[in-house]
Write a structure and sequence with these properties.
Structural class: alpha/beta
Order of helices and strands: EHEHEEHEHEEHEHEHEH
Distance between the termini: 11 Å
Strand content: 15-25%
Number of strands: 10
Largest sheet: 7 strands, parallel
Radius of gyration: 17 Å
CATH topology: Rossmann fold
Number of domains: 1
Strand order of the largest sheet: 1-10-9-6-2-3-5
Number of helices: 8
CATH class: Alpha Beta
CATH architecture: 3-Layer(aba) Sandwich
Length: about 260
């Protein structure tokens, strides 16, 4: 994995937005996999600013979801479809026609998950997938001990994950118990994986994923298997990395033309 240590979340957002700008310049109809939550917001803000000032033409870009709650009413403001439309699709001037996501309200949720996995492949595959990491090392909603070969499927959320997500709802009782998530095997099929982590609370998970052994107990460690995986962390999230200075030196020595 390529490890990039930046001063803060704002710098991380600018760096990743620049990489996405390069991707869309080279491939205007690229399929961009997005993540939800507060961590990637600086990326989306930077992309929207680039569209507004003419540095980025995202008009042909396609957007796809990493995961979705099961059972939230259509149009619920905290469904991940609504979040992605609000934070990514609309600010980039795109329409819902550019958007691909699973149906969390399907009568047969398992079939909907399989259909979404197939739809990603039929769309040509994900060109760049943004990822976050949980404090327990999960990516998407692949909780610890998920199969490293798993496909898009329905998963039951742990109580801790529901507690973590309760801040977006009026109470934990409103947080769904189930989600559709891309599996680890599905995620690994994207051409470029970019994981962003900020804050000291993510430091241990980052260190285990980057420097620890490949293990189902730390799902994010599966990125070690990918030929083009980039982990971008701020100083706080990098604080447990034993090889932090090595990673800084290696990145500083990269040729200017070499992209993330």
């Amino acid at each position: 994995m390529e490890i990039v240590i930046v001063p803060d979340a704002s710098a991380a957002g600018e760096l990743i937005a620049a990489a996405i700008t390069d991707l869309l310049t080279d491939k205007p109809d690229a399929l961009l996999g997005v993540a939800t939550g507060s961590t990637p917001l600086p990326i989306y803000r930077s992309l929207a600013e680039r569209v507004r000032d003419g540095r980025l033409d995202a008009s042909r870009a396609r957007i796809c979801q990493l995961d979705e709650y099961v059972g939230l009413p259509a149009g619920h403001p905290e469904s991940y479809r609504s979040v992605v439309l609000r934070e990514v699709v609309e600010p980039l001037g795109l329409t819902e026609d550019s958007f691909l996501g699973p149906d969390g309200n399907a009568a047969d949720v398992a079939a909907a998950a399989t259909a979404y996995d197939r739809a990603l492949a039929e769309a040509g595959g994900v060109d760049l997938q943004l990822l976050g990491i949980g404090t327990d090392g999960h990516i998407g909603f692949n909780e610890p001990c998920s199969s490293l070969a798993s496909r898009t499927r329905i998963k039951t959320l742990t109580r801790q994950t529901r507690v973590d997500n309760a801040r977006f709802f009026d109470s934990i009782d409103q947080v769904p118990h189930h989600v559709i998530t891309q599996g680890i095997g599905t995620i690994l099929e994207a051409r470029h994986l970019v994981l962003l982590a900020t804050g000291e609370a993510k430091a241990e998970a980052v260190a285990l994923a980057v420097e620890g052994p490949l293990a189902a107990a730390v799902p994010a460690s599966a990125l070690q298997l990918h030929p083009h995986a980039t982990v971008v962390v701020d100083e706080a999230a990098a604080s447990r990395l034993k090889l932090a200075d090595y990673f800084r030196d290696t990145y500083a020595a990269k040729p200017a033309w070499q992209k993330l």
